Amino acid sequence: MRRLRLTIHHLYADMMNLYGDRGNVISIKKRCEWRGIPVQVVDVGLQERIRPTGCDLFLFGGGQDREQALLAEDLSGSKGADLRAIVEDGGVVLGVCGGHQLMGHSYETPEGEELPGVGIFDLHTEPRKADEERLIGNVLVRVLAPETGETHEIVGFENHGGRTYLGEDVKPLGEVVVGYGNNGKDGTEGARRLNAYGTYLHGSLLPKNPWLTDQLILNALRRVDESFELEPLDDTMEGIAFSSVAGRVAGRR
């Protein structure tokens, strides 16, 4: 039987790493290694091609407006087309904050410049108005997992000025329980289409939410072996930590 090897493609690792988003790479890598699943991490920078292996997970982190302008230009050609094709083929992509915004159709900077996005999600991002505050704070989100029909909660930290609005052809990642989410108005947080995920949750996101980490890993590995199952891990400590944080954010304790 073929031994599966996961390749994590960390997109623009040196430019999009606000609030410890590299921790998402570390979390995926460790949870694979604890199960004996080999992992390779590949940093993909400006003007570098994406080279899928067939068993891949692609990660965008968050960044500042200046970095996003450089990325928008880099993604406007073959790299963006490759990412769209990967998603259409069931590939797994996670974009956080700036990565989430760039996975949409467009992102308007505070200076009024409209940057093109990759077009993975039917969404666009507008700058905050002069009388609007940044959306900052801890977040609790209720997520429906389409794979199982189960409802989960995830926690994280958001800090963004942009307001993201979803179109008709994309569903939110989840429903805001505490926090602002995409725009502070409609109760949505993030986006999901096929195996592509977008979210504003930093923190970093995946170490705080092992369920979501495992779901990303499983989706990637099942592209090679549809019957693959992850070996259970003893997540007792992770569960206690999550419950403690979620309880504080929700005001339950």
Describe this structure in words.
The protein is an alpha/beta fold and 253 residues long. Helix content is 28%, strand content 28%. The strands form three sheets. The protein has a six-stranded mixed beta sheet with strand order 2-1-3-4-14-13, sandwiched between helices. The N and C termini lie far apart (49 Å). The mean pLDDT is 92.
Largest sheet: 6 strands, mixed
> From N to C, what is the helix and strand string?
EHEEHHEHEEEEEEEEEEHHH
- The number of distinct structural domains comes to 1
Helix content: 25-40%
User: What is the approximate shape?
Assistant: globular
Query: For this structure, what is the CATH homologous superfamily?
Result: Class I glutamine amidotransferase (GATase) domain
SSE class = alpha/beta
CATH architecture label: 3-Layer(aba) Sandwich
List the helices and strands and how they pair.
Blueprint (H helix, E strand, L loop, with lengths): L5 E6 L10 H12 L5 E6 L11 E5 L4 H11 L2 H11 L3 E5 L1 H5 L3 E3 L5 E3 L6 E4 L8 E10 L6 E10 L2 E4 L7 E5 L9 E2 L1 E3 L2 E4 L5 H4 L1 H12 L14 H15 L3
Parallel strand pairs: 1-2, 1-3, 3-4, 4-14, 5-7
Antiparallel strand pairs: 5-6, 7-10, 8-9, 8-11, 11-12, 13-14
Structure in a nutshell:
The protein has seven helices and 14 strands. It has 253 residues and is an alpha/beta fold.
